[in-house]
Amino acid sequence: MSSIDTIMELYYRALELHLENIEILERYSFEDLAKIYNGIGPDSFPEWLRKVISSLHPSLAPAALIHDVEWHESDKTRDSFSESNDRFKRNGKSIAKQSFFILNPRRWIVWNQARRFGNYCELFGWNAWCSPCECPICTEAARKANG
Ligand SMILES: [Zn+2]
User: Where exactly are the structural domains of the chain?
Assistant: First the structure.
């Protein structure tokens, strides 16, 4: 789980960058966003993909937050799955362009990482998208529902 301060920072950064689907974050308190962020699919993602996630460039974190909330809200359809992965790539591209000057190699590194991560999710994330969300909010709700 992330700290509230980190989440607030990511939220305001996402606003500042005019990332796509920022509205999804506005439905939650910062406390809940902290529970959702990084709480997605630790078991349903293959080990190597989890390593890719943790090695993402820190500037991509606001796009990852939006992506995580989309996965938390997954309707388990193929369309919204691809939409979420494509949006991560677009948000990542937008972050790279706004954060790094054109001659800065990080602009291309970050952009490329975003593209690759979106593609990996599209290829290997389908099971996780269709599995019950494993963030603390969803596991608690499932526990209550099961008595
Ligand atoms: Zn969840």
Answer: 4-145
User: For residue 49, how far is its CA from the centre of ligand 1 (angstroms)?
Assistant: 19
Ligand 1 centroid to 21 CA: how many Å? 17
State the CB neighbour count (10 A cutoff) for residue 124. 14
Q: What is the CA(92)–ligand 1 centre distance, in A?
A: 23
Task: Quote the ligand 1 centre to 132 CA distance (angstroms).
Answer: 8
In this predicted model, what pLDDT tens digit does every residue of 112-147 receive, in sequence order?
A: 999 999 999 999 999 989 998 888 999 999 999 987
Q: Is the pLDDT of residue 46 over 90?
A: no
Taking the centre of ligand 1 as the mean of its atom positions, its distance from the CA of residue 17, in whole angstroms, is 25
